Amino acid sequence: MVAVLNEDKPYGMEMDMNNAKDSIFAPGLERLKKPVLPLVNMVQFLYLTGPFASIEEVVSRLTKSVELEGVEYVDPQQMLRPYEVFLQEFEVLKGKKKLSVSLPFIVNEKQEPVVKRQALELWIKQQILSQELEPINSLLCEPCGCVLCCTGPNSEFDEAAGYKGRMKQKFFEIPLAENEIDLFSVARIDTEQSCAVMSQSEPSLQIQQAPFYEHQMALYHWKNGWSLVLPEGSVCPHLSPETQKCLVYVKRPAVCRKPQIFAYVLEKTADTAKRSDGALIPVYMARSKVLAIWDCPYVRKFQDLIGSYAEMSGLEPVFKKNKT
Ligand code: SF4
Ligand code: SF4
Question: Using an 8 Å Cβ cutoff, are 118 and 112 in contact?
Answer without folding.
Answer: no
